[in-house]
Write a structure and sequence with these properties.
- The protein has two domains: 2-437, Alkaline Phosphatase, subunit A (3-Layer(aba) Sandwich), CATH 3.40.720; 443-504, Arylsulfatase, C-terminal domain.
- A hairpin with a 2-residue loop joins β19 and β20 (461-462).
- The chain has helices at 9-18, 64-72, 86-95, 124-129, 171-174, 245-263, 295-317, 369-372, 398-406, 423-426, 490-504; strands at 2-3, 38-44, 74-76, 79-80, 134-140, 194-198, 211-212, 215-216, 223-225, 234-236, 269-274, 324-330, 376-379, 388-390, 394-395, 437-441, 444-449, 452-455, 457-458, 461-462, 471-474.
- It has 509 residues and is of the alpha/beta class.
- α6 (245-263) packs parallel to α7 (295-317).
- It is 22% helix and 16% strand.
């Protein structure tokens, strides 16, 4: 179902051409540009449905750049991450497959675990590279790497996933890693031409360093320490600071855009910019301090918005606005609010009344809507109608098939089995309803099919209602999941349960 602006689609299309986009003063499309659009995908970390102003009028965080992006493009109100926590969500986004299909059936990767995406597996980057794109990542990877142990040291890199049952790494393992040997099995081998990233959560998982084109930067004199603001210790570069990570990611991304345009203006590029903010620990650069009325976590959401503005301005300055598909979203739902430095995530509290998930039930790590329904905005002037809002359902896994359709590529049936082409929804058009969507976190699953959602657990806790068969909600009438209908519709519970079992028992590797 499509919720349109007051204008007709024709008027919206005219507005998309005539209204100057975010940061755009470049007038009209430039000659000599690629025949396929550039694609920039900005992924915030733990930014919630209620954080961005265009999704929550009562948000206490200024997000003018994302708000304007939505006004010049389309805003999805029923977009979902591929999981409710980092690693499996990013896996789904890049591969078109749910993360629970991998050996990592719960939790996330922590420090020195091996690559989750196997060599030769199709990713967004390898798909687009095969169609002539120049590809890059600048940001948080968190999908495992191939590390090497120092001579005389032994590390069991084949240990079952996840390695870490608790918050701290094994120091013996940490000090056994040889950082003079390039990382293997990472983005460089999965379709990305140029890379600048951190191995895991940038500010709370070791190694605390940037990795550029596979090489660990400034780690020859690494020491085992606890960076300021973090509660986890690990091997860290001597110049590593948590506060400026996203500024570094953004500046590298800006240089990539400029270099790509200068070197080969006729070649399209794909930039994946997975930022660290507003993931905990909640520390940030002086640039962002005090910019929100929602505590330091709110300031970090403001920094995400700043990064969006920086990218949009660079596209404008180079005359690329009109030939670039710019997407902004978040890897999963949010924490409730800010944390005190060094405090565990379970102590997060609502900050100054700001509701990071809006009125949705649940937060990060849960299969309630607040754990996986995320902001999702896209702009491509002249193609995406300006100011459109769509309630078409989309999941991160769908990006592989959608990008394939965009560049005219047919995906083999055994590639991205959880990915469905949703391209026409980006253009503001109604589509055939998406097949069932599986939501997951920890050991909990939920299934969404049309207006119905069945929930079998929350996080790592299995939860059942009095019916013994899970919660059942009609999201069309009850978007906040307040009224369990499982006892009223036992036949529907049985049907959806069978559908979930069929999907989860299909291919795993």
């Amino acid at each position: 179902m499509m919720i349109r602006p007051l204008s007709t689609l024709l008027t919206a299309l005219l507005l998309a051409v005539s209204v100057q986009p975010l940061g755009a003063q470049d007038g009209s499309a430039k000659t000599g540009t690629p025949t396929k659009p550039n694609i920039v995908l900005i992924l915030a970390d733990d930014m919630g449905y209620g954080d961005v102003g265009c999704y929550n009028e009562e948000s206490r965080i200024p997000t003018p750049n994302m708000d304007r992006l939505a006004s010049e493009g389309i805003r999805f109100t029923d977009a979902h991450s591929a999981d409710s926590v980092c690693t499996p969500s990013r896996y789904g986004l890049l591969t078109g497959r749910y993360g629970w299909r991998t050996p990592l059936t719960r939790s996330v990767l922590f420090n020195y675990e091996p690559p989750l995406i196997h060599r030769g597996q199709t990713t967004l980057a390898s798909l687009l590279k095969g169609k002539g794109y120049r590809t890059a990542i600048s940001g948080k990877w968190h999908l495992g790497l191939g590390f090497t142990a120092k001579p005389g040291r032994t590390v069991d890199f084949a240990a079952p996933l996840p390695w870490a049952p608790g918050p701290l790494p094994d120091r013996v393992v940490s000090e056994s890693i040889d950082f003079s040997v390039p990382a293997l099995g990472g983005p460089e081998e999965l379709g990305f031409d140029e890379t600048f990233y951190t191995a895991g959560c940038s500010t709370d998982q070791e190694p605390f360093c940037f990795i550029e084109n596979g090489r660990f930067r400034n780690m020859s004199e690494a020491t085992y320490r606890k960076p300021a603001g973090s509660w986890r210790s690990g091997m860290a570069a001597p110049d590593w600071v948590n506060e400026t990570v996203d500024v570094s990611f953004t500046k590298w991304a800006l240089r990539f855009i400029e270099k790509s345009h200068k070197d080969k203006p006729e070649q399209p590029f794909f930039l994946y910019l997975p930022l660290s903010s507003p993931h905990s620990p909640h520390v940030t650069t002086d640039l962002a301090i005090g910019k929100s009325a929602a505590g330091i976590r709110g300031d970090m959401v403001w920094l995400v918005d700043w990064s969006v503005g920086q990218i949009a301005d660079k596209l404008r300055d180079l005359g690329l606005t009109w030939n670039t598909l710019l997407i902004v979203t978040s890897d999963n739902g949010p924490l409730l609010g800010s944390l005190e430095p060094g405090a565990p995530e379970k102590t997060a509290k609502i900050t100054n009344g700001h509701l990071s998930a809006g009125k949705l039930r649940g937060i990060k790590g849960q299969v309630w809507e607040g754990g996986h329904r995320v902001p999702f905005m896209a702009r491509w002037p002249g193609h995406i109608p300006a100011g459109a809002v769509t309630s078409e359902t989309i999941c991160f896994t769908d990006l592989l098939a959608t990008f394939a359709a965009l560049v005219g590529e047919d995906l083999p049936k055994d590639i991205g089995e959880d990915s469905f082409d949703r391209l026409q929804a980006f253009f503001g058009k109604a589509m055939k309803p998406r097949p069932a969507t599986v939501h997951h976190s920890g050991s909990a699953f939920a299934l969404r099919h049309g207006k119905w959602k069945i929930v079998f657990g929350v996080g790592d806790k299995q939860v059942k209602t009095a019916s013994g068969n899970g919660y059942l909600f009609n999201l069309e009438d009850d978007p906040y999941e307040a009224n369990d209908l499982s006892q009223k519709h036992p036949e529907l519970v049985k049907q959806l349960t069978g559908e979930l079992e069929a999907i989860t028992k299909s291919s795993k590797h």
